[in-house]
Amino acid sequence: MAFPKKKLQGLVAATITPMTENGEINFSVIGQYVDYLVKEQGVKNIFVNGTTGEGLSLSISERRQVAEEWVTKGKDKLDQVVIHVGALSLKESQELAQHAAEIGADGIAVIAPFFLKPWTKDILINFLKEVAAAAPALPFYYYHIPALTGVKIRAEELLDGIQDKIPTFQGLKFSDTDLLDFGQCVDQNRQQQFAFLFGVDEQLLSALVMGATGAVGSFVSRGLSTLWSN
Description:
Helix content is 40%, strand content 17%.
């Protein structure tokens, strides 16, 4: 597995998807966006097509195009480009995962399917396993956001033995306010060296105390970038 030399950690920008007044994706500004993050904010890791990027409101074609543009414009400038490939359809999610690998993304992330919801840990892991297998050379991250998916399976429960089922699993984007669950994720998986990326801006300081190794959010600012580097 050709995983990146550097672990995904620190500040990760959850990128917006720029739009024109007519509702079309404004690809022309993504290059400027990359330069802004790198030069003005000191941030070199991004999370594309997630909640902030409204990925699930885009068509599959649009999601592919957005991912391609970020990877292309970020080449030799960004350290890691992680693409969210979650979808209600397993086949669509697999297609997006394969595409992410083909264009040279550095990792993929997946939320739980949220219409016909998985009601047990095993059902959810089987879904995630099928998506991860579509891009076996890419690090795989689970995107835990129960407030939007309605899937209440605790992250701590999901992580128990997950690498036995998904060998490419590298970490968790935890976007929930349940700090007890998050703390147990960290405490019970220290030996695995997972990336524990916190996604609720308002609770970030608490999460850092509990062992978060990074943060994915739309809050990125010069002040926080400096704080993390120190």
